[in-house]
Amino acid sequence: xxxxxRPNTAGGLFATDGKPHPLQDALLAVTLVLGITSxxxxxxxxxxxxxxxTGLVGILTGAYGQWISVTTRARFGLVLGLGASAxxxxxxxxxxxxxGGLFD
Length: 104
Fold this sequence. Notes:
Elements: H1 22-41, H2 48-68, H3 72-95
Helix pairs in contact: 1-2, 1-3, 2-3
């Protein structure tokens, strides 16, 4: 029954080394939110401005998050957010781009 008294040494949800990583976790959350937003809005042709801009910012925050990431769990989430951001960005660019329709 000694195993029931052991403390949780795994750390937080994203900290597999047992240390807190608030900046990496914040970048992960921002990248995932931007990626989901970009991906969902890319399905609507008239939302190409939102899709392309959120995708671009999601790609940049995800790339910086990958650069400073120290845990595998954070990298996994960042790759998911980066992928969704990239798909949303490219579809937004195909539907009109970053400034499409603003200067007509």
